[in-house]
Amino acid sequence: MKLSRVASFLIRVHPVYRCPVSVSCNEPIRHGSVLTKSSFSVSVKDSTALFYRKHGEPSQVVQLESLDLPHMGPECVLVKMLAAPINPSDLNMIQGTYAILPELPAVGGNEGVGQVMEVGNQVKTLKVGDWVIPRDAGIGTWRTAAVVKAEDLVTLPKDIPVLSAATLGVNPCTAYRMLTDFEELKPGDTVIQNAANSGVGQAVIQIAAAKGIQTINVIRDRPDLQQLSDRLTALGATHVITEETLRRPEMKELFRSCPRPKLALNGVGGKSATELLRHLQSGGSMVTYGGMAKQPVTVPVSALIFKDVKIRGFWVTQWKRDNKHDEDALRNMLDELCILIRAGKLSAPACTEVRLQDFRKALESAMKPYVSTKQVLVM
Which of 145, 122, 135 lies closest to 4 in space, CA to CA? Predict the structure, then answer.
């Protein structure tokens, strides 16, 4: 399945090089040599980017290369990238295992924040200096600069931290929609989730806490368990438990202090997802947004017959595409999330900032298990 609309323009390099005039936004010229400079200058003419020409292990197939930017068309803007995270979906795309794949060669990265440096003469929605993030996946954000069609970007306020802006478009949006779209949650209600230390999990904890919703947060046992538990509690987690605890009788004790959850959020799959289902209240929903265990979700017949649980899925990319003609849907969500950021109620996940030229270190770290920090490329 190929990326629709925006992503179809990933052919040979970058999806948003698609301004409608014949002399503008042509495919940039790539230079084959890998750069070894210690710093990079961003100009109208050139950029550096992390390309991959075949699928495979990210640290092996991704290369840092220079490219000439195309001429700007009247509906395009020049964007200097400020920061771009490495998300699991980015790695899956490079590995060739994600649901949507660009044509190769392609620039990695689907999320990040940039600053508008120049605007085409027909652009009315953006101005020089604006902070912008991609509206859709497939942008190719692991680069120092890009020429982008204005309609493929959405603005963010510049009074929020750069790392919050760079990581806003995927995980917090996923968390927000799952907490909003599947069950009518009220203050005092409970949500249970696995992968609670992931980017989505941390956003779920904070957004739920801001709404007065209790969270039961399941994490894998690990050497720094207490440290991680303390960090999630500081974010607003009501309860932090291990996968092993989830299967034990002491869960009955936990439910004396909070109601059984109306909503379960599954980012793991396998046995972990089945255990979440066991604790849902009758008529509740389990929403699956990830499958880190790479195991299928098994639903007990009893959960369907006697508890009438609902099994749903969520993919924020599809939500954005379904709502692409509703300008207010994305805008209102981002505005509400930015209000939480300004109020100190929603922070970026723990991040490790890595220079673009040190990308291999960042990719290797992003692939390691039990790593609770997000690797962010800074330009």
Answer: 135
Token digits for 347?
Answer: 């922070």
Question: Exposure pattern of 129-159 as b/e (b: 16+ CB <10 Å)?
Answer: ebbbbbbbbbbbbbbbbbbbbbebbbebeee
Mean pLDDT of the 323-328 span: 92
d(CA 341, CA 168): 10
Instruction: Write out the E strands in 55-100.
Output: 62-68, 76-85
Q: Which of 98, 176, 289, 370 is catalytic?
A: 98
Q: Provide CB contacts within 8 A for 273, sequence distance 6+.
A: 194, 266, 286, 288, 297, 298
Whether the pLDDT of residue 86 is over 50: the answer is yes
Higher per-residue pLDDT: 155 or 18: 155
The answer for residues whose C-beta is within 8 angstroms of residue 88's C-beta and 6 or more apart is 290, 292
**In the chain, % of residues over pLDDT 70:** 88
Q: What is the pLDDT of residue 261?
A: 98
pLDDT exceeds 60 at position 304 = yes
Helix, strand, coil fractions of the chain, as percent rounded to 5: 30, 25, 45
Helix axes 199-210, 225-235, angle to 10 degrees: 40
Would residue 98 show up in a list of annotated catalytic residues for this protein? Answer: yes
Element (H, E) at 377: strand 374-378
Name the token pair of 317.
């990319």
The span from the CA of 256 to the CA of 173, in Å, is 32
Q: What is the pTM of this model?
A: 0.88
Asked whether residue 37 carries a pLDDT value surpassing 90, the answer given is: no
**Angstrom distance (rounded) from CA 222 to CA 135:** 36
Average pLDDT over residues 163-180: 98
Q: Is residue 179 predicted with pLDDT exceeding 90?
A: yes
